Amino acid sequence: MTAANHALIIVDVQPTFCEGGALPVSGGNAVAERVAAYVTAHRGDYALVVTTQDWHIDPGEHFSEAPDFVDTWPPHGVVGTEEAELHPALREVAADASVKKGQYAAAYSGFEGVDDSGVALDGILRAHGIEALDVVGLAESHCVKETALDGARAGYRVRVLTDLTAPVSPEQGRAARAAMVEAGVELVPSDAV
After folding, report:
1. Which of 54, 101, 134, 145 is catalytic?
2. pTM of the predicted model, to two decimals?
3. Which helix H or strand E contains 185, and what residues bound it?
4. Is 101 noted as a catalytic residue in this protein?
5. How confident is the model at residue 59 (pLDDT cuts 50, 70, 90)?
6. Is 100 a catalytic residue?
7. Distance, CA of 65 to CA of 46 (rounded, Å)
């Protein structure tokens, strides 16, 4: 695939999902640093770089004071908090587009998000002639997986860069990788790209 039709999707690299945040993923801060370094080194390999963010205003039953960590979660990614912003490591990453998801309901896939003009991720990608996606970010077992699966369903060639993501737990990571491989998503380390 050429740079002209390839996009990098940076999924939910936010303090809320890193150590010290409301729903920390072990290694989240390190993933943020590696993603930033990768973008710096490989920006020219992509026609489009898109960030996604969990951007909760009032997501209803997605938040719970007694979360089951399957369908309900402690408050996280709350609009107006620093935790909802992009991770500081990404401050220098000049994304071409940013989509926000989950304002009023649970949303795991970046394809559920829209930009400030209300354009959905798929619309942004199609407008730029994108055919292939590299997906990175947090968490591999949840939003990275769902974004990759939705990308594959939408007809994109999808790769997840395995060293630029981390799961909530090893078990959930294994399950996510199996689901992605079954759907035709390629799992590769970033140094093999």
Report:
1. 101
2. 0.97
3. none
4. yes
5. very high
6. no
7. 41
